[in-house]
Design a protein that fits this description.
By secondary structure, this protein is α+β, with helices and mostly antiparallel strands. It has two domains: about 55-200, Orthogonal Bundle (Helix Hairpins), CATH 1.10.287; about 215-305, Rod shape-determining protein MreC, domain 1 (Thrombin, subunit H, Beta Barrel). Helices cover about 65% and strands about 15% of the residues. Strands 1-2-5-4-3-6 form a six-stranded antiparallel beta barrel.
Length: about 300
């Protein structure tokens, strides 16, 4: 064999060996970019949904506070009108008292004139006493009504101040929600720009990841975004499947699609694929349970590892 032919064969072999790692690296990067794109899309959709729900809740609370404030203002105006009427009645009663006092003065003068007649004197004293009792009762009632109206106006004024404070708080919350919405929009725009950059670099993404792992009822398996340990608090066995419930939920970060390892001390028992998540409880299907390793039961630990 000619020496040049040998050199050509050696160079061809070296080139083939060098290209293999490059091909493998490109394949690994493609999977990473696809996962990153899917994560960004899920975060953007969840943020938009949460922002819309929060915005609607704030608007409903704001409208309810406005209606309540208007109702209190109407009640306050009505109470003020009633108070003005009571004050007018009090003024009228005061005028009557003054008028009756003048009449009493005249009666006193007449009593001096008719002092000689005990009968007339007794009748006049009785009449004056009755009138005085009636006037005092009316004046006392007017004062009591005036005090009650003052208390009512004070209470309504205090409630109005509370509602105004609540209204200001709701307005501040609405402003915060608007700021959060703007931030979410900016994050979504940034994610779209990154996706465009990825599209320019790697080309169009396929509709589904080849070889993707699916969960129960076709739900995609979601890698855990945190490490978590929970306790199995209930186990229900059926003809076709075994369900287990753990004492961790959405407030702990658990999501449908997680696959958690079930352990009895240091012994692996099986997997728990989460299907339903509540606030502080989660339910899943037991998988890979083997009689030789022991049955899944209450008290065992369900462990999630970040990224798995």
């Amino acid at each position: 064999m000619h020496i040049l032919t040998k050199i050509f064969v050696v160079l061809t072999s070296l080139l083939t060996v060098a290209l293999v790692p490059l091909v493998m690296l490109n394949t690994a990067n493609e999977e990473t970019y696809k996962k990153r794109w899917n994560d960004e899309m899920n975060v953007a959709k969840l943020a938009a949904f949460n922002n819309e729900v929060a915005q609607r809740s704030k608007e409903t609370a704001f409208r309810a506070s406005q209606d309540f404030a208007k109702d209190l203002e109407v009640k306050l105006a009505k109470a003020q009108i009633e108070r003005d009427a009571a004050m007018a009645d009090t003024t009228l009663v005061s005028g009557l008292v003054a008028s009756n006092k003048a009449q009493l003065d005249r009666l006193a003068s007449n009593l001096q004139v008719f002092a000689e007649s005990d009968k007339i004197k007794s009748e006049l004293v009785s009449t004056v006493s009755k009138e005085l009792v009636t006037l005092r009762a009316g004046l006392t009632k007017a004062d009591r009504d005036n005090v009650q109206l003052d208390d009512t106006v004070a209470n309504l004024t205090s409630e109005n101040e509370v509602v105004k404070a609540q209204l200001r708080q709701v307005q501040e919350q609405l402003k915060q929600a608007s700021d959060d919405r703007d931030k979410t929009a900016a994050d979504a725009k940034n994610a779209n720009e990154q996706l465009k950059k990825y599209g320019t670099f790697a080309g169009a993404l396929p509709q589904a990841r080849p070889g993707a792992t699916s969960g129960i009822n076709g739900d995609a398996k979601i890698p855990a975004d945190r490490s978590l340990s929970a306790t199995i608090i209930n186990v229900r066995r059926g003809a076709d499947s075994t369900m287990a419930e753990i004492n961790a939920g959405s407030r702990d970060g658990v999501q449908p699609g997680w696959v958690m390892s079930i352990a009895d001390g240091g012994k692996y028992v099986g997997n728990l694929r989460i299907t339903t998540v509540d606030v502080n409880r989660s339910v899943g299907v037991v998988e890979l349970e083997q009689a030789g390793k022991g049955e899944v039961r209450t008290g065992l630990r369900a462990i999630a590892r970040k990224g798995e």
